[in-house]
Amino acid sequence: MFHGQGRNYNLKDTMKLIIGITAPGSVILLEGQLKYFSELGYTTYLMAPTHEKVTAYCAAEGCIHLPVKIEREISLLKDFKSLIQVFSHLRKIKPDIVNFGTPKISLVGLIAAQLLGVKRRIYTCRGFRFEHEVGFKKLLLVTMERITAFFAQDVICISDSVRNYGLDNRIFPAHKALVINKGSSNGIPLKRFNPANITPESSRILKQHLGLEGHFVFGYVGRLVDRKGINELYAAFDSLFAANSNLRLLYVGSPEFEQIADKSLIDRMKTHPGIVMAGSQRDVPLYLSVMDVFVLPAWWEGFGNVLVQAAAMGKPVISTTGTGTIDAVDPDFNGILVQPKSVEQLKDAMLQLYNNAPLREELGSNGIAWAKNFDSPIIWQGMAALYEVSKE
């Protein structure tokens, strides 16, 4: 027996659950999830490309890897081969439930699941790649999303703004689309993102190592790509730094050059006297602990997980009113929201928090309370309830 959103369910037989992702790196978006369902009595599978990250995840979570070759970009021949692979896995496993997230695996996975009569077919919609595309590519991506949603019985939208955007663009009907609690695809592991876990000494040592001692630190965590607002953040910080050389901007993350239009931006970041490039880091809570203000000026997200992570660490946050980010911040309670791509608004918000220590303290303290809405078990319990709803 287990609980899902206040209701009780009995697992009469072992249920087979397949989760599917397109990119190996997306396992970070599933942390703890398949272990949770394994402990409930499900037999769990992860359908994903073969990669050391996937192997490590399956070992840690107690799930079975179903290898599939699949690429993020559109390729009719390769996508057809992926469909055959997925079809073969599903026919062999005969799952009771499939939940596919990320566009490509969701498209081929749900088509195959429909053809094989899988009883419960879920699509986890993590945002829309077409949001800032134009022309034929946008039309193609919209069509792919509509096909995916058509073959799903339910669509878990990971934020209210993603659901609204999908409805506005007729991706799915309202009766199929839902948001679990206040959103997020997997919740946040609040036991890990807890400021009490970080000792003052460990923060001091990291600050010293990064050359941040005695400086006011704005921070960013995430992939370095245009749509995350890295251009706007650089421009806003550079302007502030020109007037106040005590400021620092700490970037935690690695560039993905295929998603950066102006490749010289990274060189300018690396040579800027006020910017520290820390690269990708495993101990994100420790790096968040050395920041005074967290900034993510993304154009859009599925859901801004890192904004809740920063809030959980007691940091005031600045983000945008874009899709997905607007749901991850409670404006004027734990952070400030600005318009996407507005350097001036971003600069003003950064300057406001720099100049107002009581406001920083208030927003940071409120953030710890805000983050409790997104504890991972809340999301998993919602999924469990959804999996047990008969659609026959």
Question: How would you sum up this structure, described in words?
Answer:
With 392 residues, this protein is α/β, with parallel strands linked by helices. It folds into two domains: 2-187 and 376-387, 3-Layer(aba) Sandwich (Rossmann fold), CATH 3.40.50.2000; 195-374, Glycogen Phosphorylase B (Rossmann fold, 3-Layer(aba) Sandwich). The protein is built from 14 helices and 15 strands. The chain has helices at residues 33-39, 52-61, 76-93, 103-115, 135-151, 160-168, 200-210, 230-243, 264-271, 284-289, 305-312, 343-355, 357-371, 376-387; strands at 2-4, 7-9, 16-20, 43-48, 64-67, 97-101, 120-125, 154-157, 177-178, 216-221, 247-252, 275-277, 293-295, 317-320, 335-338. Strand 11 (247-252), helix 9 (264-271) and strand 12 form a beta-alpha-beta unit. The two termini are 22 Å apart.
Give the overall shape, derived from the CA principal axes: globular
Number of strands: 15
Identify low-pLDDT runs: 1-12
Helix-strand category: alpha/beta
Average of the residue pLDDT scores = 93
The CATH architecture of the largest domain would be 3-Layer(aba) Sandwich
Gyration radius over CA: 21 Å
Helix content range: 40-55%
Quaternary structure state of the chains depicted? single chain
How many domains comprise the coordinates?
Answer: 2
Tell me about the biggest sheet?
Answer: 7 strands, parallel
How do the strands of the widest beta sheet line up side by side? 5-4-3-6-7-8-9
Per CATH, the superfamily of the largest domain is Glycogen Phosphorylase B
